[in-house]
User: Fold these one by one.
Assistant:
Number 1:
Amino acid sequence: MFRPETGKPLYELAQVLLRRESTLSEAERELIAAYVSKRNDTMFCMMSHAAASRALFGDEKQIVDDVLKDMNKANITDKMKALLNIAGKVQVLGNEVKPEDVDMARKHGATDKEIHDAVLIAAAFSMFNRYVDGLASFTPTDEKEYEVMGKRMAEKGYVPPVNKEK
């Protein structure tokens, strides 16, 4: 809301990455965002996107906490583990992703578009994380606030908040 000319395209990018049509579910894409945000130690983004992912996973919401605790031990598909592995490497540095990482994802059924989207979500959220942290943004500490936020994000997607001061 402070800079609508930059905020609007950022919301639009999040909407495209996390809500537009994809063979990866919205819950899985939110999970990638939460995973990268956790690795970047950005509490606000990790908590809000984890909450959105939980809301979207519904009865299987424990998957989110399991992935955030230890992705390799989580009850997710090998394809999702391979995509999270790639996302984790992008979070460190893009050229950490090696051909064998991409080959492993393909071996487990990931399409080139899914690999592309996992990379772009990881790169975008690394930027979003740095933006949020760089502004020393307010970070709620009450988990209930994130639950409400996650439900709103799951239901409405990424639309800029309405500035009530106008």
Number 2:
Amino acid sequence: MKLALLGPIAWRTPPRHYGPWEQVTGLLADGLARRGVDVTLFATLDSQTAATLDGVSPRGYEEDGGLDGRIWEGLHVAHALARSAEFDLVHNHLDWLPLAFSTFCRARLLTTIHGFSNRKILPAYQAADSAYVSISDADRAPELNYCATIHHGIDLSRFAFSPTGGEDLVILGRIHPDKGTADAIDIARRAGRRLKIAGPIQDHSYFTEQVAPHIDGQRVCYLGSVGPEQRSDLLASAAALLHPIAFAEPFGLSVVESMAAGTPVAPCQRSSMGP
């Protein structure tokens, strides 16, 4: 079997720091290649993989301000679909854009839906000739037919288990109202514990107005976007991971990573984080 994995190109695969879709796609490519599957990963050209690498974008557009993501994603999809006849299956991890051009795909198309940014994108899913996989039962759209739910996996060897933890609270992920960063600050204050914040700033106004004024390096610390090794140490040395999401999150990788490190999670009961 010849498999094409159509990955995202916002970040390198695997990501240096943030990049959950790239992380999942990279683990899948490596795992299948090591099991003898003939896998071609379409990703940024600086990506590292056990599969065969192909692509057009030199770097992730979130890592290079000179790259326009709209342009390079279009070129990326066009390049992959132009080669689609060479494969038995094209597995799409790039959201709706490849679906808009699914009639040009010359192999069976499978799409893992990593979450809906907006229900307005559903027409692209409904019109496409693709099978769908959800990453949690809670994230299924009733308008679509799914062939399976496959939860995310992680590389357990990258996370050191700690049976003791520490005293600090941690929030890990993009800094955005959806993730509840400011709520985590309030929770930590009321709990009388120091909070460590790690993740890229996605909403700069939110960060400036509701997060930055509380960062003092003592009770509230901002560590920036951290890579896998730092993430493991950060989680293993924490008392708990806060996950006060303000949206119906399809599935949280940081939640699984925290439990792999032996650190309990304090989530909001919403969507896949529900009971």
